[in-house]
Amino acid sequence: MTGNYIRQIVWLAGVMACLVTGPVSGSIRESSFDASRARFTAAFGETINPYNELATFVMPGQSVPIEVAGTAAGLRLAALAEGGRLDAVETRSWVWKAPITPGLYRLRLKSLNTNDTMQFNVFVMHPRSRAANGSLNGYPIGHYPETPLNNLDVYRPPRGFVEVTPDLANVPVSPHFRIGQFLCKEDARGPKYMVMRSALPLKLEGVLEEVNASGVAANSFEVMSGYRTPAYNRRIGNETTYSRHLWGDAADVFIDRDGDGEMDDLNRDGRVDMGDARWLVERVDDLESAHTHLIGGVGQYKANSHHGPFVHIDSRGFKVRW
Questions:
Q1: Are 230 and 248 in contact (CB under 8 A)?
Q2: Burial of 97 (0-12, 13-18, 19+ CB in 10 A)
Q3: For residues 54 and 121, is the Cβ–Cβ distance under 8 A?
Q4: How confident is the model over 276-322, as pLDDT tens digits?
Q5: pLDDT tens-digit series, residues 54-74
Q6: What residue segments make up the domains of the chain, in order of their start?
Q7: Strands 139-140 and 47-51
Q8: Which pLDDT score is estimated for 188?
Q9: CATH of domain 34-123
Q10: Per-residue DSSP letters for 135-152?
């Protein structure tokens, strides 16, 4: 069991304790924000999920262990899968073997004595080997560097790509985010293909909770840029070969509750500027300080003629600021 996995278990134990004992003054429970946390937590492979719904990403035929990490007293659970093969191992653990056909498959953990359900929206990916000559089924991908940055595993080329058809754009990747929010802005017909890691929506959900706990009521973030293919990244003039956007665990976001297309006045100083970006960065810092397994990169950007201020958030696994 890795140290990161243990840290996640500790974090979730704290979450469950908060649910039992109640939060302190000024916390989320005093607002209308619903974090959509489940009454139990479960591990899908090495991904720990405390929410009612989460997207995960696997390869064709991959076997994934599923284990309930925490339950309320007396809660009895069953696992249900729309596809693939699901085998029980123990009372609260299973192994699911993914189908060989890429696509979306839903897997549910359901309480037998309450209405509580946790759903994994599992995307079986197209192997990277199918992206011949830098494209996949006609969709331009480009080429990833074969040499990982500083020999770090998080910079190795992705194993596969998620196919997103128009009817799948609204599939939740977590309670407050949809997969369509993170698609590359490449203008192409037919299905789009992307890379995404579950660590990104998990981190964004955590930051969103911090935002609401700090007195700003928000139900999601506006995503300016999520995944970028290497081809699109190069075409827009970005010279960062190892941008985390290419690995599907980065998003450029802002909070826009009034619908004007720009960042809101988060620090309530009467204007929208870098002070509001810094306020959002502070919420990310608050999250990472308390839950070190969620550390990553954070960058703040000022407004220009094309957009207002925004913040880059990623889950690369080590701390970077700019």
A1: no
A2: middle
A3: yes
A4: 999 999 999 999 999 999 999 999 999 999 999 999 999 999 999 99
A5: 999 999 999 999 999 866 667
A6: 34-123
A7: unpaired
A8: 87
A9: 2.60.40.10
A10: EETTEE-----SS-GGG-
